[in-house]
C-alpha cells in the first residue's frame, strides 16, 4: 500500500490518499478543491471506499460533499463532532472568512479503541482530543503510518485557542497515544511535511520535559 499527500485549499491542508494494489483507496480529510481531488483520483484510476476525518474543522471538510457525491462513499467522524459538518459556527468557517461550509452530516462514527476495517485496510482509531473535542488519529500498521490531523506536526503541535481546544489535554493525548507507537512510525500531519515519532520525541520543543 502507498499513501500520497495532497495539499488543498488556501491553508494547504493535507489530504491523504492511501491506496492498495487493487486501486482501492481511503481518503483522509478532503479539505477543499473537491473537483481537483476528484479529477486526481480519476486520473489515478482509484476507487474510494471511505472518507475518514481526523476532525471536523472547516479546512478539513470543505470537499466532503463533492467527494461523496462523485464516489458515493461514507464519511466517518468522532461522535463528539457529529453536529460540526453542517454548522459554520462549530466547524469554524463562520469565523475565518472562508465562506460558510454546510456539509451534510457524517454517515458513521468512529469507535476509538476498536479496529476500523474496509476490505484489506485496517486502522487503529486513537482518540487524541485537545486540538478539538473529537480529534482522532488513524494508525495504519501495514504502512507504519499515523494520520494525525492537527494533533502533532513536524516540530509542532496543534493550536488550542479555538473553541473546545485544551493544550494540556492535547499534550497528554500525544504522549499517551502517539508517542507510544513504534518510533519509526510516519506521522502524516494535517499541515506541513511528514515526520516520524522518533524525530518528534527527539526534536519537538513542545513535548520535551512533559
From TrEMBL:
It comes from the Bacteria. Pfam families: Lactamase_B. It comes from Metabacillus sediminis. Gene3D superfamilies: Ribonuclease Z/Hydroxyacylglutathione hydrolase-like (3.60.15.10). Keywords: Hydrolase, Metal-binding, Zinc. Residues 12-191 form the Metallo-beta-lactamase domain. Its cofactor is Zn(2+). This is MBL fold metallo-hydrolase.
Amino acid at each position: 500500500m502507498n499513501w500520497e499527500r495532497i495539499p488543498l485549499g488556501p491553508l494547504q491542508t493535507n489530504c491523504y490518499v492511501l491506496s492498495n494494489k487493487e486501486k482501492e483507496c481511503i481518503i483522509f480529510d478532503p479539505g477543499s478543491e473537491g473537483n481537483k481531488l476528484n479529477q486526481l483520483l480519476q486520473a489515478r484510476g482509484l476507487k474510494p471506499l471511505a472518507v475518514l476525518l481526523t476532525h471536523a474543522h472547516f479546512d478539513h471538510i470543505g470537499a466532503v460533499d463533492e467527494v461523496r457525491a462523485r464516489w458515493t462513499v461514507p464519511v466517518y467522524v468522532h461522535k463528539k463532532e457529529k453536529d460540526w459538518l453542517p454548522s459554520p459556527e462549530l466547524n469554524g468557517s463562520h469565523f475565518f472568512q472562508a465562506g460558510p461550509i454546510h456539509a451534510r452530516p457524517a454517515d458513521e462514527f468512529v469507535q476509538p479503541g476498536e479496529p476500523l476495517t474496509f476490505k484489506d485496510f485496517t486502522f487503529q482509531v486513537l482518540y487524541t482530543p485537545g486540538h478539538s473535542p473529537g480529534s482522532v488519529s488513524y494508525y495504519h500498521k501495514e504502512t507504519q503510518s499515523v494520520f494525525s490531523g492537527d494533533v502533532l506536526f513536524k516540530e509542532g503541535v496543534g493550536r488550542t485557542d479555538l473553541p473546545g481546544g485544551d493544550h494540556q489535554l492535547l499534550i497528554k493525548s500525544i504522549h499517551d497515544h502517539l508517542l507510544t507507537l513504534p518510533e519509526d512510525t510516519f506521522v502524516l500531519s494535517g499541515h506541513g511535511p511528514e515526520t516520524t515519532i522518533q524525530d518528534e520525541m527527539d526534536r519537538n520543543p513542545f513535548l520535551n520535559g512533559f
